[in-house]
Amino acid sequence: MRVLVTGGNGQLGRALKKVLPEKDSFFVDKEQMDITDKKEVLKKILKISPQVIIHCAAYTDVDGSELNQKLAFKVNRGGAANVAAAAKKISAAMVYISTDYVFDGRKKTPYSEAGKTNPLGIYGQSKLAGERQVQKILKKFFIVRTAWLYGEGKNFPKTILNLTKTKKEINVVSDQFGSPTYTLDLARGLSKLILTQKYGLYHFTNSGSCSWFQFAQKILKLKNKNNVKIIPITTQQWSKIKPGGAPRPNYTVLNTHKFQKTFKIKPRSWQSALKDYMKENNV
């Protein structure tokens, strides 16, 4: 099976390089294919002629999306539409990677795929618009919403550990809850999903949930950084320290039962995945 991955140098793209067969797997980044250029996308995809396209490329800067709204929609909605149109042309299936930020976080129980979407910020709005473009253009699609991704590249665990080099106290938000997800676990799930034709909308994250504060605590515990203190603060307090940021949902834990039942994959706990990530990547 020929598989094309967009956003090949991103965290998820790099994880997919580790799990997809080297033969017949193609990875492109924006230097090789500008997803906002419809003609370029069609030309590249026709040339590679994949059976499946895993669309990881996105504008993922949550705060930056508020300042660059046109760009966020151009990449996340327009780019997805361009890739979907090209996929349709060659009868390829498409996997669109989406986000927990399509929800407003007002619930206190995990969101199922049928949950009402109501994104608070431009990033979530643009990703939801991308979902709708894919659904409108294609019949052979998988939309996979995930959350709090970390892997090879810039991420939350590395940011926290870098801060410990210069700080003895670190402020971390304690009233936003989600499920940290190791890109390698998501990549393994996607590698099985694309072997099926069970198209539709799915949620995938590592199991369990925590706040950013609890996530940071666990990171330091695994590194035995007992000399650094994590200070819990509210979203409101953080907005005073760093004004002008995007509105963020307080609770975006995703219900993964549909993914588990359909593909016979049970995601491991976020704690187990984090431990392996730090060991495997010498973090």
UniProtKB/TrEMBL annotation:
**Enzyme Commission numbers on file:** 1.1.1.133
What keywords is this UniProt entry annotated with?
A: NADP, Oxidoreductase
Please provide, in alphabetical order, the Gene Ontology terms of the cellular component aspect for this entry: cytosol
UniProt record, GO biological process: dTDP-rhamnose biosynthetic process
Annotated GO MF terms: dTDP-4-dehydrorhamnose reductase activity
- Which SUPFAM superfamilies does the entry link to? NAD(P)-binding Rossmann-fold domains
- Which InterPro entries does this entry report, sorted A to Z? dTDP_dehydrorham_reduct, NAD(P)-bd_dom_sf, RmlD-like-bd
Specify the pathway: Carbohydrate biosynthesis; dTDP-L-rhamnose biosynthesis
Pfam families the UniProt entry points to: RmlD_sub_bind
All copies of the RmlD-like substrate binding domain together span 1-280
Tell me the protein family, please.
Answer: Belongs to the dTDP-4-dehydrorhamnose reductase family.
The record's function comment reads:
Catalyzes the reduction of dTDP-6-deoxy-L-lyxo-4-hexulose to yield dTDP-L-rhamnose.
| Alphabetized NCBIfam families for the sequence | rmlD
Name assigned to this protein: dTDP-4-dehydrorhamnose reductase
Write the lineage as a comma-separated list: Bacteria, Candidatus Nealsoniibacteriota
The gene from which this protein is expressed is rfbD
